[in-house]
Automatic annotation (TrEMBL):
Job of this protein: Is probably a protein kinase regulator of UbiI activity which is involved in aerobic coenzyme Q (ubiquinone) biosynthesis.
Native organism: Kosakonia pseudosacchari
Entry similarity comment: Belongs to the protein kinase superfamily. ADCK protein kinase family.
Top-level division of the source organism's lineage: Bacteria
Name of the protein: Probable protein kinase UbiB
Cross-referenced HAMAP family: UbiB (MF_00414)
Record-annotated membrane-spanning stretches: 524-543
Active site, per annotation: 288 (proton acceptor)
Record-listed ATP binding positions: 130-138, 153
Keyword set, alphabetical order: ATP-binding, Cell inner membrane, Cell membrane, Kinase, Membrane, Nucleotide-binding, Transferase, Transmembrane, Transmembrane helix, Ubiquinone, Ubiquinone biosynthesis
Protein's UniProt keywords contain ATP-binding: yes
């Protein structure tokens, strides 16, 4: 490790210990070496004993920076894994991270707008931020030209060096995983970190976020399920984003939703539908759907509509991955574990020599207990952990392109658990996936392919005779080349046989000449001629091998 990486690692350990987070280490025999290591090498005391554990964890993650804050945001949705005192504190990382100076944000906005005063473009600019998160914070204002209310998002200053330092350290640690764990190589840790790095660096480019939001808004235009605020791209730059200000109820504020008369069952079902629509219909999904980025409209609570913001991280899947995922989900819903096992083999996610029967039985052992239960009794976290252990037995490699999808699924579960614990996830998702599969392989898919590729085929139709002729000519030349190669291989095979024969003759003559020379010196020149003949046979054999 470089001195800089060692300093950062030391700072991380120091931060955790100064907040007393070693309390999170369970007192078990397996953790005894770790606890002894902490007592002997790191004796730093807990400097925040007056604070509760959840608050100390939040403050430590906040102090370590955006990489750790993102981790805390994901943990905040897993209320099945953490008590409320911890989960509530981690939820504050979603939009209540300590802000930076509003006057500094104002200077950044002015610099992005050509060093002109904020008042040139905006009225009622609020120096106090409306919300602050791990990467950026937002300020309210009003467009001077139209009077529309907007929010201005500004990247935190000097954040990139901190992110790069942490990622460099994480890369180093990921490089140790294959050496420390027996199946570490299968986990593909560096590929997973690289995928996380890409999403995190992309989030620093607000022009990319603006484009993502515009695309997502177009995908759900006039949809009763999801509303995406309008982006004012003329005012956007790499470090600044301007979008429509929205008013809604935070999706995590269940009490406010109930007070507004929101149909929570329909809202929870629509959350699942929005997710699957983004993944399978559009292949473009919001991959940072923690509660701080999701609101619910005050309007028509009986027909609730989500409002999605912060599109800095999006994911997409190729056609093959979507197909395999959809078929896997349907097979899971139908309890067809044989199909699940075969799909994993067909997709290449497990080795082709995997015993399908054993894999099927292992999957059934993990998944059968979760069916016909409400969401409140199902923990995807535990299911994923069991599936992970099952996959390890069958040498299944981690798929980096699915990491974002897995994280988003965890967010969806957390939100769904808060809104309507009795949600039947399978009943909600299965019809959607079955319809999508039919659309991909049935008559509609054929008609769609004809519409998409018909003009291209019509354009190429006059060239078909020439293409056929060229194909036949190439086939003829290919056959001639194959015949020539076969002839050369046959000739080479014959030469190799002759060479081996001559080497054998040469060895026999040399051995015979040597024995005669030793045992029959009176034979005169005969042994010498035999040895010369052996050498000549070897030379001819060597020449034929060239």
């Amino acid at each position: 490790m470089t001195p800089g990486e060692l300093r950062r690692l030391y700072f991380i350990i120091q931060t955790f210990l100064s907040y007393g987070l070693d309390e999170l280490i369970p007192k078990m025999r397996i953790t005894l070496p770790l606890r002894l290591w902490r007592r002997t090498l790191f004796w730093m005391p807990n400097r925040h004993k007056e604070k509760m554990l959840g608050e100390r964890l939040r403050l430590a993650l906040q102090e370590l920076g955006p990489v750790w804050i993102k981790f805390g945001q994901m943990l905040s949705t897993r209320r099945d894994l953490f008590p409320p005192l911890i989960a509530d504190q981690l939820a504050m990382l979603q939009d209540r991270v300590a802000p930076f100076d509003g006057h500094l944000a104002k200077k950044q906005i002015e610099k992005a707008m050509g060093d002109l005063p904020v008042e040139t473009w905006f009225d009622d600019f609020a120096i106090e931020p409306l919300a602050s998160a791990s990467i950026a914070q937002v300020h309210t204002a009003r467009l001077k030209e139209s009077g529309k209310e907007v929010v201005i998002k500004v990247i935190r200053p000097d954040i990139l060096p901190v992110i790069k330092a942490d990622l460099k350290l994480i890369y180093r640690l990921a490089g140790w995983v294959p050496r420390l764990l027996p199946d570490g190589r299968r986990l593909r840790p560096r590929e997973v970190v690289r995928e996380y790095e890409k999403t995190l660096i992309d989030e620093l480019d607000l022009l990319r976020e603006a484009a993502n939001a515009i695309q997502l808004r177009r995908n759900f235009e006039n949809s009763p399920m999801l509303y995406v605020p309008e982006i004012y791209s003329d005012y956007c730059s790499q470090n600044m984003l301007v979008m429509e200000r929205i008013y809604g109820i935070p999706v995590s504020d269940v009490a406010a939703l109930e007070k507004n008369g929101t149909n929570l069952k329909l809202l929870a079902e629509r959350g699942v539908q929005v997710f699957f629509t983004q993944v399978f219909r559009d292949s473009f999904f919001h991959a940072d759907m923690h509660p701080g980025n999701i609101f619910v409209s005050y309007d028509h609570p009986e027909d609730p509509q989500y409002i999605g913001i912060d599109c800095g991280i999006v994911g997409s899947l190729n056609k093959e991955d979507k197909r395999y995922l959809a078929e896997n989900f349907i097979a899971f819903f139908n309890r067809d574990y044989r199909k699940v096992a075969e799909l994993h083999v067909d997709s290449g996610w497990v080795p082709p020599d995997t015993n399908v029967e054993e894999f099927e039985f292992a999957i059934r052992t993990v998944c059968e207990p979760i069916f016909e239960k409400p969401l409140a009794e199902i923990s995807f976290g535990h299911v994923l952990l069991n599936l992970f252990n099952t996959a390890r037995r069958f040498n299944m490699e981690v798929q980096p392109q699915l990491v974002l999808l897995q994280k988003t699924l965890l967010y969806i579960e957390g939100v769904g658990r808060q809104l309507y614990p009795q949600l039947d996830l399978w009943k909600t998702a299965k019809p959607f996936l079955e319809t999508w599969i039919k659309d991909q392989v049935g008559i509609p898919a054929l008609v769609r392919a004809l519409k998409e590729k018909g003009p291209f085929w019509i354009e190429k139709m006059p060239e078909i005779p020439e293409l056929i002729y060229n194909g036949l000519q190439q086939g003829k030349h290919l056959q001639q080349s194959v015949d020539k190669i076969a002839s050369e291989l046959q000739a080479n095979h014959v030469r190799q046989g002759q060479s081996r024969y001559l080497f054998g003759i040469g060895a026999t003559l040399l051995l015979s000449g040597t024995l005669l020379l030793i045992n029959r010196p009176e034979w005169g020149l005969t042994p010498g001629w035999l040895m010369v003949g052996g050498v000549l046979a070897w030379c001819v054999g060597w020449y034929k091998t060239r």
